[in-house]
UniProtKB/TrEMBL annotation:
Residues 88-311 form the Polyphosphate kinase-2-related domain. Pfam families: PPK2. Belongs to the polyphosphate kinase 2 (PPK2) family. Class I subfamily. InterPro entries: P-loop_NTPase, PPK2-related, PPK2_PA0141. One of its GO terms (biological process) is phosphorus metabolic process. This is Unannotated protein. One of its GO terms (molecular function) is polyphosphate kinase activity. Residues 323-345 are annotated as: Disordered. It comes from freshwater metagenome. Keywords: Kinase, Transferase.
């Protein structure tokens, strides 16, 4: 349900998860991560609901629901490692989003008129906010010149091809924008951690990715690589919302649940990816996304700052917030992904 009287999810993974420790509204208590992970994986939906968990959100906020506990308080795991004390308000978000989307339309017109090619990669852990950000990027763009690519697992034929081949066919032609909801970097993180590729395949990708990107950039393609960062407890909160919210249950896959015990392995794979594929032609940019709304807006600002389009409104675009967006060595270590407190005790 999505109205004021809906289910609760605040304090959090306390009620829902077996419980030795809890997380309260202000996030000043810790959850036992091991218990939380076990509960999310093993309890049925009915058992989770019996523990008092629910999802709350007005119809205007249906895309950003809140998890609420049995005490009626929202779970505020988003505060973990986050540089702001409050989430961006709905009104401030909607106003800024509208003006930034107008700037995106200006940029799209420039891309078409000047035969530019723009590729933006949206990468990050599961439930980091990649899809929601892409949705806001695309919301008012002309679909004839902008597309989203979200590829499923490769077919047997594709598995026998050059690894980059299935991605090359989706690259934009002149005057177009392509947004990748996950990309060839699946090999560097998901496939590496889950054992879906051999060591040889992995090493070949890591060696060739910068070369491949260099060719794209030298040919005139504008390439932007974004990593959406989410803390461990906030990811668990978002997974729980997906588990109990009927319109989001399809988003929680067996792969998501399988990844719960591999947080540190994903962290190592991510950091290795940054170290080996962050280069001058195509650097990585980290977006701290515990606050989804702020993360979306700052990602838009960053991409717009990469484009030299005319009639830019500097008051709207400005400069991305350095507390939210920046290079891996500046932002990633503080984003809540790598801290010792994230480890299952």
């Amino acid at each position: 349900m999505f109205c004021g009287d809906s289910v609760s999810v605040h304090r959090a993974l306390v009620v829902v998860f077996a419980g030795s420790a809890t997380i309260v509204g202000m996030g000043d208590h810790l959850i036992d991560l091991a218990d939380a992970i076990t509960s999310l994986r093993e309890l049925t939906l009915a058992e989770l609901l019996d523990r008092g968990l629910s999802v709350r959100g007005t119809f205007d906020e249906i895309d950003d629901p809140v998890l609420v506990g049995a005490d009626g308080l929202p779970v505020e795991t988003w505060r973990e490692g986050y540089p702001y004390d409050e989430r961006l308000s709905r009104d401030a978000y909607e106003e800024s989003k509208r003006f930034l989307q107008i700037e995106l339309l200006k940029a799209q017109s420039w891309i078409k008129e000047t035969d530019q090619r723009l590729v933006v990669l949206f990468e990050g852990r599961d439930a980091a906010g990649k899809g929601g950000s892409i949705k806001r990027f695309m919301e008012h763009l002309n679909p004839r010149g902008a597309s989203v690519v979200a590829l499923s697992a490769p077919s047997p034929r594709e598995q026998g091809q050059w690894y980059f081949q299935r991605y090359v066919q989706h690259l934009p032609t002149r005057g177009e924008i392509t947004l990748f909801d996950r990309s060839c970097y699946n090999r560097a993180v998901v496939e590496r951690v889950m054992g879906f590729c051999s060591d040889g395949d992995y090493e070949e990708f890591m060696a060739h990715a910068p070369e491949f990107e260099g060719m794209l950039v030298r040919s005139g393609t504008i390439l932007v690589k974004l990593w959406f960062s989410v803390s461990r407890r906030e990811q668990l909160t978002r997974f729980t919302i997906r588990r109990i919210d009927p319109v989001r249950q399809w988003k929680l896959s067996p792969m998501d649940l399988a990844s719960l015990d591999r947080w540190d392995e994903y962290t190592d794979a991510k950091n290795t990816m940054f170290r080996r594929t962050h280069h001058d032609a195509a650097p990585w940019t980290v977006v701290r996304a515990n606050d989804k709304k702020r993360g979306r807006l700052e990602a838009m600002k960053f991409v717009l700052n990469c484009l030299d389009y005319p009639d830019r409104d500097p008051d709207v675009v400005g400069r991305p917030d350095p507390l939210i967006v920046g290079p891996p060595d500046v932002v990633a270590a503080d984003a809540g992904e790598d801290t010792a407190s994230d480890r299952v005790r």
